[in-house]
Inverse folding.
């Protein structure tokens, strides 16, 4: 199923609050516990928060989290 392009969904001249997600690889756990391997990836939460804050400084966005 084809998705609409962002340009068709978001107006460039309007301010919007957008929840953006992306799936990178099937069965890949970025955070939390992987039930199959038993590995815990909670150590990535701080790194991810720091990266989001860093990136927000360079782009015209505010993080609401």
């Amino acid at each position: 199923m084809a998705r609409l392009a962002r340009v068709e969904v978001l107006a460039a001249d309007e301010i919007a609050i957008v929840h953006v997600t992306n799936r990178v690889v099937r069965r890949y756990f970025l955070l939390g516990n992987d039930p199959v391997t038993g590995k815990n990836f909670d150590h990535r939460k701080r790194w991810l928060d720091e990266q989001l804050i860093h990136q927000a400084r360079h782009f015209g966005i505010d993080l609401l989290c």
Observations:
- The mean pLDDT is 81.
- The radius of gyration is 16 Å.
- The helical segments are 6-9, 44-58.
- Residues 38 and 58 are 36 Å apart (CA to CA).
